[in-house]
Amino acid sequence: MKARPPLKFLLARLLGKVLILLLYRMRIKGRNHCPRKGAALLVANHVSYADPLLVAVASPRIVHFLMSRTYYDIPVAHWFFKAMGAIPVSGRDSPKAVIRSLEACRKVLEEGKVLCIFAEGTVSRHGQMNSFKKGFERVVQGLDVPVVPVHLDRLWGSLFSFEGGGVLFKWPRRLPYPVTVAFGPSLPSSATAHQVRQAIQELGSESFRLRLAERETLALEYIRMAKKHPWRLALADSSGRSLSFGSALAAAAGLAKALDHEIDAGRNAGVMLPASVGGGLAVLALTLAGRAPVMLGLALSKQAAAERCAKAGVTTVLTSRKVTDRLGWRPDRPVFIEDLPLPGRWASLGSWLRLLVMSPERLAQVWAPRASRDLEDVAAILFTSGSTGVPKGAMLSHANILSNVEAISQVYATLATDRVLGVLTLHHALGFTATLWLPLLLGLGAVYHHDPADVSAVAALAERFRPTILAATPVMLAAYLRRVEARAFGSLRLVVAGADKLREELAAAWLDKFGVLPLEGYGTTELSPVAAVNIPDVVGSRRRQKGGKVGTIGRPLPGVTIKTVCPETWESTPEGVPGLLLVKGPNVMKGYVGDPASTSECMRHGWYVTGDVAVIDDDGFVAITDRLARFTRIDGEMVPHRALETRLQDLSGAAGPAFLVSSVPDGEEGERLVVLYKNDCDIESLRSRLSEEGFPRPWIPEARRFHRVAELPIAASGKVDLAALKAMAAEAERRPGG
Fold this sequence. Notes:
- The protein is an alpha/beta fold and 738 residues long.
- Helices cover 35% and strands 22% of the residues.
- β31 and β32 form a beta hairpin.
């Protein structure tokens, strides 16, 4: 006969269940993956101190927990944890004590019971998943026990989480607080910490989609924010123009109405405007009108712009005369934003009265009757840079952009007092999401200057508005480091670098001068755009939790899963082994507009194939090693171009990028390496030093494969134009002596 649990255990479990049901509104997914009988090890992420109770209530079985001895020994709670059958352990325990705790865990499993371990070993203090300890591998070693991944979502911000820096002493956002507990398919007992962490991340991607089901589309979310904070600064720029959230909504609604007469029914519209109040209003107006803005660059030729418009089915382009005069051409069917009628005094007064007295739902009916109500509708079309070929138009849905905004705000802990300094163009994916939609949806102010290279104007704007957040490319950061006074950027608390690799010395120099360390992130247009970020470390009462690691792109955002695979077999690579980088999550685009073939090429079973080669370390940090296209197979080995470039750069002592490596077909070897360089240097000396440092001989190109060029194909953002590089290398090799 099966023994019944002790009465004190049942009472403790009942008390815990009552507490959870009072404080939380639980959604349980995949409960069937938890075995109904027999031993099982549950491995979960750790977001709050309520996690054990949540898992206990969500599980169909009685669960025993491995927990921190620090909390187990708290006098007022010790009886409860002991009654629940918790097993205490501490990092300060002696090796023998740790072994005893692990043996106690193993005994639970040997008795056919269910054990739960929070493999991070501590509650997250920064909202991201920490590295996984490998103790659970030892617990199940030699046992035939299923390992069930468990993901807890939406707890960041709850009473028992560290959001805001503390636990308990904060006002709850909602009661009961929504939470999702997801159980995944079991893994074998031989699963590594890396594999289990990966499985929990994938559960997190699915759980994040459930968050979005409670959200509204961009237009409706903005209307709610404008209703909540009508007087707060929303948009400003260096021209002196500024608008509050309420004024921006009223202006965008009027603009949307005027555009109905300019744009064909059912069509989207191109936007060719700088980062400015006008550019932001144009995007917002089109969104209120239920049209997806097709973002066009400000340095395009007329033919290139026409090709993008044709692909996206666009016939009308919103722009300004200043933009077209600078370009020297006009779209075939332009709508100049300065020509559109502005509301008069009485109309503006009426708009404000509506804003103040109407509900958000009624405002949406009046000002955005045709705005999309479906999160999966296309919200914007942004074109890729074309650095690897022909630019493609990534269709981003409302859900894509919302998920990115929510995840970014979670890990960077944005504040109501934050202001964003917008120097990236709006057709740049990071500029579009992080400097436009993120502040609009979170109630932050955004201040813009149309030319990031105009350093003095950017500095003046920063001194005037005191922004706290800056997103920029490493090239921009280098320019600001040289030419901006420290006081101008004294208000910045968060600086994020993207689009190219952030050099350690640049980050260190920024910290020394401005007192803020730039943090490298990673993304692509297809990912809306952010996939992974470094965040500031958090110092707890006993230890520091790492949020960033030098030389990496950080960890995946909440809801985003990253893995590396062998490009030939598509099997996952172990931690520490480079592989092709794949990304899954609610931020992955719907596809390329008018290009199903390219969409199929880059999507594989829900994973976006980035084309980058990366390595994931045992802490979960990701480091990009190169593009897959930037490897050359020589003598059966893949030679990384970036490794050769970096070493040549270091050996030459050049201040800026001076070397790029490519490859061309070779009749005998299949491929051969080619080096383009732009400064005077002693090629033979460089080759000798590479050899002395142990570079394999096939990795060192012959001297005649080094070609001097006037300029390297590197964009202002710092990104290498790989298509142009390939063409230049081929042309150099065709020249006499090549």
